[in-house]
Write a structure and sequence with these properties.
- The structure holds two protein chains of two kinds.
- By secondary structure, chain A is mainly α.
- Chain A has two domains: 17-290, no CATH class; 297-326, no CATH class.
- Chain A has helices at 2-16, 23-46, 54-70, 75-97, 102-122, 149-171, 174-184, 186-191, 196-222, 232-245, 252-267, 273-288, 292-309, 317-325.
- In chain A, helix 2 (23-46) packs across helix 10 (232-245) and helix 3 packs antiparallel against helix 4.
- Chain B is an all-alpha fold.
- Chain B has a single domain (11-132, 139-281), classed as ABC transporter involved in vitamin B12 uptake, BtuC, CATH 1.10.3470.
- Helix content of chain B is 72%, strand content 2%.
- Chain B has a two-stranded antiparallel ribbon with strand order 1-2.
- The relative contact order of chain B is 0.21.
- The chains are: A mainly alpha, B mainly alpha.
Chain lengths: 326, 293
Amino acid sequence: MQRVLFLTIVAAFAIAAPFFFYSVTLMTIMCFVVFACSFNLLLGYTGLLCFGHAMFFGGAAYVTGYVLQSTPLSTELAILAGGAAAGLLGAVIGYLTMKRQGIQFAMITLAFSQFIYFIFLQAPFTGGEDGMQAIPRNDLFGVIDISSNLTFYYVVLAITALCVFIYYRVVHSPYGEVLKAVRDNQPRVESLGFDPEKIKLVAFIISAAMAGIAGGMKATVYQFATLTDASWPVSGEVILMTLLGGLGTLTGPVFGAAIIILLNDYLAGFGEWALISQGVILLVVIVFFRRGFVGELSALKRSFLRRKTGSAGSGTPAAEAIKARS
Amino acid sequence: MFEGISTQLLFGQLLLGLINGSFYAMLSMGLAIIFGLMNVVNFTHGAQYMLGAFVAWLLLNHLGLGYWYSLILAPIVVAGFGMVMERLLLRPLQNLDHLYGLLATYAVALIVEGLARYQYGSTGLPYENPISGGVNLGFMFLPYYRLWVVVFSIVTCIVTWLLIEHTKLGAYLRAANENPRIVETFGINVPKMMTLTYGFGVGLAALSGVLAAPIYQVSPSMGSSLMIVVFAVVVIGGMGSIMGAAVTGYMLGIIEGLTKVIYPEAASVVIFLFMIVALYLRPAGMFASKESV
């Protein structure tokens, strides 16, 4: 009941939002919400730190843009094509890197993303340093005109809702449970007869495809795709969003993406300060608030509830731990 | 194979490759040392390299201390910064998941690079060449300073390797990596050793920065792009092997230089291509002697 109420409020807010806020900013936030969700699936639930997630985001933006420019395919199919291309790229890179664990994985994915970046820099279809300009928004399903930002806002909202729903389903499926088990104790999962490498590879592909959907959406929102979207600072940004929102929390990426996008918007005129403040926020989160925004809030709520029922004697740390384990 | 390519161009690019390789080798050695003992992927490495160059520039322009002073002073200053960073930031994160250490060093890199860019802008600052002139070898012109960089970096790499593989101190370091608790029971202060190791690795990065200052311009972004290439080098060489990292660094520098002659379009990606091949053939690393961590 509580959940239905919560979802209704969120839905009402999302539908009314473009009448109160600038729709392009809202759409940007949603693109990054999907992007951060895809990243959280990997780092928060699988324990894989990919330091090159921008290659899927930026790569898919080019693919979506290219499809829209050179074919009459409808916009939603073009975004899907971006996601599929990113998933394919993820499959190849995941296959090559899955053997290396932990922090090495971060270095390798970063190097891969730089490799892809250089390819985009030189490939003829990306437009090099100028980027891909004037990407059209072909009619939705081939019939509905979505050239106005207000109409398009609802398309982006629908895709975002769908992606978040899929993310939610993956995390709460039996497969999601295995993912978390791989994160917490890989040898144990292996001893139970699972193949952790294959499980992680599938998570990597899902995550890459989802990041691709996000990138494809961004290309259609701004109607251009640039090298920036595929560059490593964007990879760093999505890490920051996820950590700030709360690693391995469901709603964390939403808050993280919103906070960072609004901050970037606000600091856009201050040159280097956007980057510096991102560094400072990341540092503060790592040192003091490792649970992130959502994680700290729910921890606060839990400790508040415990204090209320504490006199009954059931709230000892040991009891909590046992309860949590069973 | 090299028909139609002038020897001058070939040797010119080979030398350039060797110079780049010198920086790859020194930087990846520092990374491998830090990773080997502390299990920290030092994302600040590029920023520390940049800081080395900037300290040299500041010493020259504000205190009038020239290149040769900087070669000693800049690494000490930056290593000091690194050791403070290790004590205040990395030590408290030591017992958590290693990715927090990695992300913390990344955050510091963002801040340092951002501040440098805020203060000095994105354009490079020139640094005067301390050894001007060169020698004509007949088939090419060899500037003395470039020769100095190559020789100096090779000596540095060999000394570092001897220090870690063939001295008692190095043995302690390697032992502390294997089993810090047992080493501590021998009365060795492992945390202090870690601080010093991090300082040493950072000092190597800063030393490379000073070496690089007269060749490349001193600019805030000089470290970040180089660092990603160095990561690829370390991945190819295997994370655990210090000599492997250095040898791979020189090798890939030369390969990159040759690619510029044979097929210039691929020069920026050839190292990454090698990484992919290496990942495919040797998933645990080229020179890896033990299980990957």
